[in-house]
Amino acid sequence: MSSRDHWGNKLGFILAAVGSAVGLGNIWKFPYVVGKNGGSAFILIYLACIILVGIPILMAEIYIGKKSQLNPVGALRFFQKGKIPFSLIGYAGVLCGIIILSYYSVITGWICHYLMLSFRGFSGTETEISEIFSHLNATPWLNIAWHTFVMVTVMLILVKGVRQGIEKASKILMPLLGLLLLVLVCYSMTLEGMKDAWHFLTYPDFSKVTGGSFLEALGTSFFTLSLGMGAMITYGSYLKGDVNITKSAVQIASIDTLIAFLAGIVIFPIVFTNNLEPSAGPGLIFKTLPVLFSKMPGGHFVALLFFSLVLFAAITSAISLLEVAVSFVTDEYKCSRIKAIIFMGTLIWLLGIFSAVSSWNVAGTPFLDLFDKIASCYMLPLGGLCTALVFGWAIKTESKYKEIGSSAVTKTLLFAAKYVSPLLLLVVFLKEIGLF
Ligand code: PFF
């Protein structure tokens, strides 16, 4: 245990955790889900989910990791009480990370492709530009090539270790991401559509909210905070010494939410200025935005900044996804880090090929969509529910107070983790599997 690598300092941990949290979920998924669900009313529900479920479970995961100093499987086994094998939750988390990274890397590959195209600039008719995406999707070798590039990059960063690899990459990429985002926000503020976008993002219209919006808000908040699959347990396990877990959880969740909101501030004014509908769906950044980039003054440069931003966000998240699997193999099988990276990286790369070849499907559903559905709709909420139950019910309150403190905020969050989060997650899960 003494040979375990640790974060250099608290800032390193916060940046790495924010790096994991801020990703495609914030910049790609959040804006289109908000667009689809009618804007700010959805944002309010999303915020409630972050406060009632996201922060308490984030706190639980960091606690479980820090206290045990182990990977998700070992960490949950560490808290085992009675006969129920808690380690199963950890195994499911590792599997979930493997599934998510397999398709996350393919989507990150698309971003690389669009970044390359941005160097040349997008030009042509609307149909031609939106066809870039269909062409990319229909060209397996190109998808596989980008997927390989992403996996190899992530593996090379991980080879350097926790402090020299993950922490260093986060310390470079996250401030750069913040800077790019600010430049883009300033740009979007100058657009005519800013007023409509602001109205859309801040004036709640509850008529567009449906039962499904609640599920989508909870699912999205879980995905964007990297919860339910042990990523934050793993990052927590690289913490040592005196760290305020409550404060860290609040900071990570706040920055993640702020970045998702700012991504909306960047994207929606562009959409509104061009009289388009904000509910374009998943194609928003791959089809709609490039068309708009081709039309607007300075669009070439904006496209470059935008796709670099998304790439930085995606890479730091992919790093955390692979680290979960790597820490599991190194801890549980006492194998060297490099061997674990090669083994898990190759396995995930192979699995990713199913998503990269878009014509491969199961009963008409492409593997990418299928994997996303299995992981984010079923495995993450279920993993979160089990983690909350272990944290809330199997660990003594005094031990938690000792490690996390007993301020009023902490006590409220502990209450939420014990009662509110499991209940809400149970509702979501039962709803998802159609039981009510
Ligand atoms: N939080 C990432 C995003 O918003 O894109 C996705 C993610 C990363 C999910 C790491 C889970 C995880 F463990």
Radius of gyration: 21 Å
Q: What's the main sheet like? A: 2 strands, antiparallel
Side-by-side strand order of the widest sheet: 1-2
Ligand kinds: 4-fluoro-L-phenylalanine
Q: How far from one another are the termini?
A: 45 Å
SSE topology string: HHHHHHHHHHHHHHHEEHHH
Write the CATH fold name. Hydantoin permease
Contiguous helical run count: 18
Average pLDDT metric: 93
Residues in β-strands, percent: under 5%
Q: Report the CATH C-level class.
A: Mainly Alpha
What is the β-strand count?
Answer: 2
Spans of 5+ residues with little confidence (pLDDT < 50)? none
Amount of helix: over 70%
CATH superfamily: Hydantoin permease
Keywords:
18 helices, 2 strands, 436 residues, 77% helix, binds 4-fluoro-L-phenylalanine, mainly alpha, 1% strand, Hydantoin permease, two-stranded antiparallel sheet
Write the layout of secondary structure elements.
Blueprint: H1 10-21, H2 24-36, H3 40-68, H4 72-78, H5 87-120, H6 126-137, H7 140-159, H8 162-189, H9 194-202, H10 211-224, H11 231-236, H12 245-273, H13 288-295, H14 299-333, H15 337-356, E1 361-362, E2 365-366, H16 367-394, H17 397-404, H18 408-432
Bound molecules: 4-fluoro-L-phenylalanine.
4-fluoro-L-phenylalanine binds next to helix 1, helix 2, helix 5, helix 10 and helix 14.
